[in-house]
Amino acid sequence: MTTSLSPLLDPEARHVLDLDRQAAAPPFEAGTPEEARRAYEQGLPALQGEREPVSSLTERTIAGPGGPLTLRIYRGQGAAATDAPALLYLHGGGWVIGNLESHDEICRWLANLAACVVVCPDYRLAPEHKFPAAIEDCVAVLSFMQGGAGDLGIDAERIAVAGDSAGGNLATVLCLLARGDKNPPTAQLLFYPNTDASQAADSYRRFADGYGLTAATMAWFRDHYIRDARDIGDWRVSPLKAESLAGAAPAFVAIAGHDILADEGEAYAKRLEDDKVPVVLRRWPGQIHGFVSMGRHGPAARQAVGAAVAAWRGFDPVFGNAQAD
Question: Which Pfam families does the record match to this protein (predicted)?
Answer without folding.
Answer: Abhydrolase_3
